[in-house]
Amino acid sequence: MKKLLILFFILSLTSYSQDNIQRVEVIKTNTQIEEFSNKIGKNEFKVDFLDLLVFPALSVGYEKVNNSSTAFGSTLFLNLGGNDSDWNDNFAITPYYRFYFLESEDYGGYGIFAEIFTKFAFGDAEKYNETSNTYDEDNYFDMALGLAVGKKWINRNGYTFELLLGVGRNLLYDDSTDSFDRSAASGRANISIGKRF
């Protein structure tokens, strides 16, 4: 009887200890984050589909991830509609530097970001000449300096999806002398899909 009681006591303790579930929390170290970033790549090529849909334009970009919180890159814009397009810029290159926030510690170079950019643009603008009842055309070059914000998502295979909205100031635009169909502001908006390599 004594042995049976001891056996019952041991079995009840064993079943009680199995009911306690311990929570295990995995902490990612900087080494693990860097290894994963190296696995999916630190270089990214992307295509902006907003420009393809809205204008007949091609906009491609390249980004290099410095670390889990910063990156730099450039976007190249080419107007495929020429003079028939509603957009003045024919060609633009936009270098930028980004600061990633919040989720960037998981994959590196993803999440909510703020961006400082410069834009170098060549284009054609026109104005209506009341004297001759025709449109005069002017070729221009302008530089802009601006800020943008956005969000980037990335999957485990290195494919990215990015939304971006920003505004800059055209530095060579002079409102008193420039009466062509241009403005002092320069917009920046992207919906792009890319791939890390």
Q: What this model shows, in words?
A:
The protein is of the alpha+beta class and about 200 residues long. About 20% of the residues lie in helices and about 50% in strands. Strands 1-2-3-4-5-6-7-8 form an eight-stranded antiparallel barrel. It starts with a helix and ends with a strand.
Q: Topology, please?
A:
Blueprint: H1 2-19, H2 30-40, E1 43-48, H3 49-54, E2 57-65, E3 70-79, E4 89-101, H4 104-107, E5 111-129, E6 134-154, E7 159-170, E8 185-196
Antiparallel strand pairs: 1-2, 1-8, 2-3, 3-4, 4-5, 5-6, 6-7, 7-8
TL;DR?
The chain contains four helices and eight strands; from the N terminus they run H-H-E-H-E-E-E-H-E-E-E-E.
* Total of DSSP H or I helical runs spanning 4+ residues: 4
Mean pLDDT, as a whole number? 82
Proportion of residues in β-strands: over 45%
C-alpha geometry: rod-shaped
Rg from alpha-carbon coordinates: 28 Å
Question: Stretches where pLDDT falls below 50 for ≥5 residues?
Answer: none
Could you say which structural class the secondary elements and strand pairing correspond to?
alpha+beta
What can be said about the biggest beta sheet? 8 strands, antiparallel, barrel
Instruction: Say how many strands there are.
Output: 8
H/E order of the elements? Answer: HHEHEEEHEEEE
Strand order of the largest sheet: 1-2-3-4-5-6-7-8
Percent of residues in helices comes to 10-25%
Distance between the termini: 71 Å
